[in-house]
Amino acid sequence: MQKQDTDTTRALQGLEDNRSSVRLRAALAVGTTPDPRFIDKLIERCASEPEFYVREMLTWALTRHSPSMTVPELLHEVRSERAQARSQALHTLSKIGDRQAWPAITRALLSDADEEVARSAWRAAVVLVPEGEEAELAAVLTTQLGRGERETQLSLSRALIALGEVMLPALRPAMTDVDPRVRAHAIATERLLRDPDAGFEFAIEEAKRVVALGRTGQEE
What we know:
Number of strands: 0
Protein name: HEAT repeat domain-containing protein
Order of helices and strands: HHHHHHHHHHHHH
Radius of gyration: 20 Å
Oligomer: single chain
Shape: elongated
Helix content: 55-70%
CATH architecture of the largest domain: Alpha Horseshoe
CATH topology of the largest domain: Leucine-rich Repeat Variant
Low-confidence stretches: none
CATH class of the largest domain: Mainly Alpha
Largest sheet: none
Structural class: mainly alpha
Number of helices: 13
InterPro entries: ARM-like, ARM-type_fold
């Protein structure tokens, strides 16, 4: 028991170490031997950890613990004022995949001003959405078309495509939107649904040409 306590203390200290390699090893150790005493510290660390690969290990460590203990804490975190806390909590919920978390994926999160939070919310939403509510989710997601740069737009397109053809009724009006960015993004998303191998760069450039010619993908 004393050795376990010593190991626990060492791991908790490791998560706060100035060296990212030490934090990474500590997160790996925590995930390898899950202990409920680590959950709060893992979530707290997710909100401030600057290194992407360490954050991924923290998320993995959380998924190794019981969802009954992690999900309630993560649901509290998605309401945090800190953008990284919201983003990482959503990302972790998407990895856990417990659909009891679905009510926490609000329209406010899906349109969050912080793009990393919004992208995490999109990914979590398509994993957690209950059967039969995909079309409603697609209607909310399409309000974000045209937002951000390529990486953000690709994230949204992937989320919509993950919903399948049920998202088309929400997508098609956007293909004739007055905003050329929205129109191009919608057309590119529809093309990627039809031809996943086309690649987003090709699809968006082709969509821009279509928009410049004053047509929509539906006319082809």
